[in-house]
Structure formats: C-alpha cells, structure tokens
Amino acid sequence: MIRFEEITNKNIWKVCALEPFENQKEFVAENIQSLAEAYATRNEGNNNALPLAVYNDEILIGFVMIGKGTVGNEEESDLIKENYSLWRLMIDQKYQGQGLGKQTMDAAVSLIRTFPCGEAQNVWLSYEPENTRARDIYLKYGFVETSEMCGSVDAARSVTLTL
Ligand SMILES: CC(C)(COP(=O)(O)OP(=O)(O)OC[C@H]1O[C@@H](n2cnc3c(N)ncnc32)[C@H](O)[C@@H]1OP(=O)(O)O)[C@@H](O)C(=O)NCCC(=O)NCCS
C-alpha cells in the first residue's frame, strides 16, 4: 500500500538518492533541488510546500511535493495563486512500470482532498510536452488540459482536476 512520510534525517539522503531513468531526468528536478525549493517556499511564511517520501509498504519508492498558492512569481495566474499543485512526482527507476506511479497519484490527490493547506477548487500540474507517459497518466486520471502556462517553464503544458 502506498503511504507518505515527512522528510526527516531518517530518510532525507535516501530520498535524494532516488532517480528516474536517464532519459527522464529532463522532466523532473532532482529531489535535492525540490527540497531546497520547499525550504525556501516555507520560509516565505506561506507554508505551501509539502515534500513527502513515497513508500510502498516499507520500501521507499519515490517522492512527491504538493504545493498551494503562489510561489512568488509575478506572472502567476489565479489558477496557480489559489489552488493546489502536484509540484513534483517521481518514482525511482527500479519501481516504475508496476502501477505504483498511478497509485501514488491517487494517494496524493486523496491527501490534497483533505485540504492540508486550506480549501481550494482545483489541483493543477505542469509537464514537459515530450513527457507523453506522464501526460497519458494525468489525462486518464481525469485531469484536463488548460491553456495556462507555469510561469517559470515557458514550454510546459498544464492540466487541472476539480477537487
Ligand atoms: C511518470 C511516472 C511517475 C510514472 O510512474 P510509473 O510507476 O512508471 O507508472 P505506472 O506503472 O503507474 O504506469 C502508468 C502508465 O504508464 C504506462 N507505462 C508503464 N511503463 C511504461 C513504459 N516503459 N513506457 C510507456 N508507458 C509505460 C503504464 O502502462 C500505465 O498506463 P496504463 O494505465 O495505460 O497501463 C514515472 O515514469 C516517473 O517518475 N517519471 C520521471 C519523472 C516524471 O516525469 N514525473 C512527472 C513530471 S510532470
């Protein structure tokens, strides 16, 4: 069963050692970079970055980061300012292709639906256009494509799901 744990000194370096396949590295930031971003975002006082280690029972298999609201970019749309994002999602190469990515997505959306950072209407996420595998998972899950762009990544596409 998929479950989440906070990042602590117990698991931080194991989380940082998780890796997607080489040809997927352009699609997702390294986990250590995501943790640095989460730290900086939380220090702005918004408490809107929730990085989590993903376990399948006792085995560490991946990393997700949930966000809420602005991350301080002036060009952000209302969709970004007022809603949740599935900011990062990765499954270590050893554990991909077994249905765990989809289950992790399911668990992350369920967690967001408990509104850990306050109420909102939608969850959105962005992905690189070449990342067709991720896109297929999102569309199959029920996300719909939007015309919104994630401010910092010009070429990224975004999708949204009603909570
Ligand atoms: C995207 C990602 C999280 C999916 O994780 P996963 O555990 O491999 O996904 P699942 O096993 O749940 O499979 C999901 C779908 O991909 C399909 N799939 C599995 N292996 C595949 C492969 N080698 N090539 C293409 N599709 C594949 C599955 O068939 C499934 O589709 P289905 O429901 O039609 O059967 C994982 O590939 C990953 O971490 N990628 C790198 C980081 C990334 O791109 N993150 C998203 C950024 S937006």
Describe, in plain words, how this protein is organized in 3D.
The protein is of the alpha+beta class and 163 residues long. It has a single domain (2-119), classed as Gcn5-related N-acetyltransferase (GNAT) (Aminopeptidase, 3-Layer(aba) Sandwich), CATH 3.40.630.30. The chain has helices at 12-16, 31-43, 78-82, 100-112, 132-141; strands at 2-6, 49-56, 59-68, 84-91, 122-127, 144-146, 157-162. The protein has a seven-stranded mixed beta sheet, with helices on both faces. Helix 4 links the parallel strand 4 and strand 5 (122-127). The mean pLDDT is 91. Coenzyme A binds next to strand 4, helix 4 and helix 5.
Compile the SSE list and pairings.
Elements: E1 2-6, H1 12-16, H2 31-43, E2 49-56, E3 59-68, H3 78-82, E4 84-91, H4 100-112, E5 122-127, H5 132-141, E6 144-146, E7 157-162
Parallel strand pairs: 4-5
Antiparallel strand pairs: 1-2, 2-3, 3-4, 5-7, 6-7
The protein binds coenzyme A.
CATH superfamily: Gcn5-related N-acetyltransferase (GNAT)
The CATH class is identified as Alpha Beta
Fold-level CATH name: Aminopeptidase
Q: How are the strands of the largest sheet arranged?
A: 1-2-3-4-5-7-6
Overall average residue pLDDT: 91
Number of helices: 5
- Ligands in the structure? coenzyme A
> Roughly how many Å apart are the termini?
23 Å
Based on CA atoms alone, the radius of gyration comes out at: 15 Å
Largest sheet: 7 strands, mixed
Q: Per DSSP, what share of the residues sits in E-state strands of 2 or more residues? A: 25-35%
Q: Assign the structural class, choosing from mainly alpha, mainly beta, alpha/beta, alpha+beta, or little secondary structure.
A: alpha+beta
- The string of secondary-structure elements, in order, is EHHEEHEHEHEE
* Total beta-strand segments: 7
Query: What portion of residues is helical?
Result: 25-40%
- What is the total domain count? 1
Uncertain regions: pLDDT < 50 for 5+ in a row? none
